[in-house]
Design goal:
single chain; Lipoprotein; signal; Rossmann fold
């Protein structure tokens, strides 16, 4: 039987190429980064970053807010989603400033994945620059001026963003706020004086609880009063309010920590 030159080599190579798609793992199974939304398929982790617009941002606050966001973004892995939203005087006026997933190509699982992978690293780098620029722009819009609001509807805003039973709970929640509730549901006078049990009863009556099973919550910017001097919270009031927020998130299934930084 006469064979054409090179056939003995070509047939095994052809067979190998036909088998490659079946052998490649998830990392190299044909992921293509055509649009920014494609990266979201690479991870089921998500972070909610809430910014209290009823708090006046001085220069230190602005620097801390930008530093905090930078620390959060640095910890994101490829495909992780970040949502940035505002806290206002009423939960219905919350605004979503950003909703995006961190760009990047999945790690190759070996030679087969290197051959079959279709993710453009150049495009991923360009998309990551746009991703960072978009997040920075969303903050730049709000940090220079605070809302002229007489109240701060923190509890119901958190409930609004976390309360959906049909959505997967957030992996992490970062809240940049003084956490001083002052709304038509619970005025500051009541929030600062009522016992914890009574406050939780009001929350339950309004179905304003947080749904945070397994979520890590970090509060940044806590510890100051509403007054113009932004005086430190008296120790007794500080302990009382920490106790309420700890219980609020715990009953939703999460754990909260109060911090001045996101990397500490």
């Amino acid at each position: 039987m006469t064979m054409f030159p090179g056939c003995r080599l070509a047939l095994p190579v052809l067979a190998l190429l036909m088998l490659l798609p079946a052998c490649s793992g998830p990392a190299g199974s044909g992921f293509v980064n055509r649009t920014a939304d494609d990266y979201c398929a690479l991870s089921d982790r998500s972070t909610l970053f809430l910014i209290d617009r009823t708090t006046t941002f001085d220069a230190d606050d602005q620097a801390l807010l930008m530093e905090s966001l930078g620390g959060v973004v640095d910890k994101l892995q490829t495909g992780d989603r970040i949502i940035i939203a505002t806290i206002s005087d009423h939960y219905s006026r919350t605004r979503r400033l950003a909703n995006a997933c961190k760009p990047g190509c999945p790690d190759a699982g070996g030679v087969v994945d290197e051959i079959m992978g279709s993710c453009s690293t150049m495009k991923a780098k360009q998309d990551q620059q746009q991703f960072m620029g978009s997040l920075a722009g969303s903050l730049r819009e709000i940090i220079n001026t605070a809302e002229d609001a007489s109240g701060s509807d923190i509890i119901r805003t958190i409930g609004h963003w976390t309360g959906s039973a049909s959505a997967e709970p957030y992996t992490n929640i970062i809240i940049y706020s003084d956490m001083l509730e002052n709304s038509d549901m619970i005025a500051w006078r009541k929030f600062s004086s009522l016992p914890e049990d009574e406050l939780m009863e009001i929350v339950a009556e309004h179905s304003a609880g947080a749904r945070t099973p397994g979520t890590g919550i970090r509060v940044i910017g806590y510890g100051r009063l509403h007054d113009q001097a932004r005086s430190p919270l008296p120790s007794a009031l500080d302990a009382k309010l920490r106790g309420f927020w700890t219980r609020y998130f715990f009953e939703g299934g999460g754990q909260v920590e109060f911090s001045a930084r996101t990397d500490g």
